[in-house]
Request: fold
Amino acid sequence: MNIEVISVSKSPEKLTEVPSAIQVITGEDVYRSAYTSLPEALRLASNLQVAKTNSHDWAISSRGFNAAQLSNNTLSNKLLVMIDGRSVYTPLFGGVFWDVQNVLLEDLSRIEVVSGPGGTLWGANAVNGVINVITKTAKETQGLFLSGSTGSFLKDYAAVRYGTKLAPNLYFRMYEQQFDQGDMKLKNGNDANDGWTMTQGGFRMDYFPSAKNTFTLHGDIYGGKEENPTNSIENGQNIYGKWTHNFSERSELTINAYFDRTLKDFPVSKITDRLVTYDLDVQHRFRLAPRHNILYGLGFRLMDDNFTNAPSISFNPPDKMLHLINTFAQDQVNIVPHKLELTVGTKLLYNDYSKFEFQPSARLAWLLTPKNTIWAAVSRAVRTPSRFETDEITTALTTPGGYFLSETVVAYELGYRLRPAENVSFSIATYYNIYDNLRSINTNPTPPSNFIFANDQKANSWGVEISGNVIAADWWRLRGGYTYMDKKFTYKSANVLPTASSIEALDPLNQAMIQSIMNLPGHLQLDITGRYVDDIVTPFTTTTSVNAYTTFDVRFAWEHAGYTISLHGQNLASSDHAEFGQRQLPRNVAAKLTIRF
Reply:
């Protein structure tokens, strides 16, 4: 509970004092799991809905609205994801290509998962939550690290990292990893032939020239191939720089910028999408009078998207330059020092489609005692239009005049954190969300096309998120949580297809996760992660699209003097079950060797 997080207010604050629903996955939590990729690691946050759609793609959301599956991604679009300050976002559909978000898990510091709107600070698409992936500094990863594994599903994996000190206060590391993942199963038991290979490398440099200045520079390059449902080739490069200057303990300036290039090529369907992103952000934090902590900033993002049209899907224009400009301000007011704090702020956002958007929020934290905190919040956030809704011109589905509004949510939240004993902590968050202008698919009164995109759906959702951590003994730690989420859709037009809500929200009603981490005698480790996921029921039709399942993963390891030998088993209780769509996730049994010098 004393972990410091930055994703709620863009400045460090104790988890106990944060007026938001946030869970933290530490690097140790991930290391002590059987998980081998970033999307898998997100299963350790019980406030996320995480489902594997095929060997290389995922459906990931917070507080629901996991949208329908396409060939090589899903239409989920209400979650903002950042990796070390770089937003991983595609303007094609407003979501994330999870297959190319690969992080060397050994380098993870923590993953901060905020469920609920974060648009006031982070901008468009932080409608239902924010995932902030934070890696260790180069100073924390010195020396040589080698790792390799082989298994039945993740067939081959290898990674190497080397960190060194180049000069006083200048630290550097570089890494490379590659993997070959096997096929999922079809319902008839045959292989889906959707295997996946990827190679990625990169570097990070951290420079601490003085007590007042820090500078970080890091970048990655990757390339890979994916098979069914649509064969594709991926590659990309990115580089990110951040400079922080402390004027004093009361004032800090941060400037960060990044360049990101991604390419997805589908040779069979003759579709190619190239996206180049340039981003610059500046923020200043200072204390105004004893009780006001001010944070303000501005940002500019330029996205150059180039799409090669094909008979299956076309955009008009195929190439488009997109601009995103924002400014924000926030004031943390200590109404009663160390007892009652009010945070108010807003972001003003400009985009090429819906123009100006306003995203205010107010959050209140009341520290009843050092071990008890009540918090409440009300926020407004938007999901700005994507190219999919505004520029697509297929004969079957289009948007008249390209006119599509931003989707909006007004969220009401109430939460409580409790530490009844030094080794036990619990958190509960409740919410009620009101959505408007949700994407709908309507019949077209004036064909062609037969169907059109519109903003004719509304929805209300409500739920509760419970999480906890228990240090049961000095050798045994438990963490986990439970989530309940329900929703109701209404239509604003008689032209909305009855199945439109099914495309936008395919979510379980209940889900639970528990992770057990044990240090046994003889340098042995036994780690078990179990999870339950309820039926995924299609709204309005009440048809079960994915059956409920319960399963668990096990890691058994021997670790001593820099060497780790481990055995991993995944999906041991419910092999060949579907999580999203119809493809079946098989068991994975693997052996892994890790060496650190």
User: Anything to note?
Assistant: The first helix runs from residue 27 to 31. Helices lie at 27-31, 38-41, 119-122, 387-390, 500-504. The mean pLDDT is 93.
